[in-house]
Amino acid sequence: MRAPIGDFDHATPAPDRLDELTAPVAAAVRAWSGSVPADQLLYVDTDPRWADTAVFVEHYGRDLLERSANCVVVAGKRGGGTTLAACVVLSTTRLDVNGVVRRHLGARKASFAPMDTATGETGMEYGGITPVGLPGDWPVLVDAAVVDLPYVLVGSGRRRGKLLVPGKAFAELPGAVVLEGLGVA
Known about the structure:
Distance between the termini: 34 Å
Order of helices and strands: EHEHEEEHEHEHEEHEE
Number of strands: 11
């Protein structure tokens, strides 16, 4: 099948490539129940050497820059407690951690979670964290611009491979909250 975005040789429905996904991502795809059918979540094989956004778009298509999203794990702190959340913003924007994220989490301070925390808590590889398959009790904050796109490129849980997901599917993820201005230019 031809990928709807990017210059990929082949795209396969994610349910047919569960062996290429980390356990939490494969479980989420297997249990998928949103209005977007699971077979519209597509897996594309990519070289892990080109996983970082700037190099990736040079190799797989410049059109991907405006159609890819980053999933960032954030730690919000208030009192003695910490709340972990995932934030999904377009790759062309930066996450408003100290404004929108902090206020939404009701945190006194919000910052990017340490790499060991992000990978340990998600069961995913650094550089491949995706909002598909996150812990069920996490808030998943999604920028409205992500939801508006027909397809969005995100991680697959590993540095090798990516998912192409219809934008509206992000609004249906467990714990998802769509927010305006989460990503800023």
